[in-house]
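Protein record

Derive tokens from sequence
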Amino acid sequence: MSASDAKVVSREPLMIRDAAWTKLVKTTYTDPNGKIRTWESAERATRPKNSLVDGVGIVAVLEKPTGPEIVLQKQFRPPIDKICIEVPAGLVDEGESPEVCAVRELKEETGYVGEVMKGGFGTSPVMFNDPGFCNTNLNMIHVTVDMSKPENKDLKPELEDNEFIEVFSVPLKDLYTECRKLEKEGYAIDARVGTLAEGIEIARKWKL
């Protein structure tokens, strides 16, 4: 059993009364010229009341003698009917900080036990995924994984019954090349993974 065994079998309009995770919103606003306009968008229905974000994306780096590797996942995503290459991620629970959420989700989805980086680099600014379409947002949380620890040698993910995730890792220095390769193989590249890869490649090209 793998992510490739999943497939979309039908697609139909969703009535608002039947939506458990999302809702559609019509916003009325004035443009810079004072003209009244409207905008259709989507919102998550799950953001905790006291949270600034819906969830987290996790940049988990394995500290290996051969060099740092980033933890990635293959997961089937029904909206695009493709297996997507992603970083571990998840929604924040009520009363949970993004940092605690990241460590929890990393353990649940991959089995890795990590530690949030310190020195101001652990948590990104709040990022909006697609602000022209929805208000979904997140923090990227940077986590290091000490591969010398016993718990990171015998991995025990704690997946929910609707999660089918394949975990793998890629040397950070090869992330851009790997994304190109995976796209040619038919995988979809999550924007967070692609942006990380582009950033590494830009830093390399411009010698930053």
About this structure: The longest helix spans residues 191-205. Residues 23 and 43 are 5 Å apart (CA to CA). Helices lie at 98-110, 175-184, 191-205.
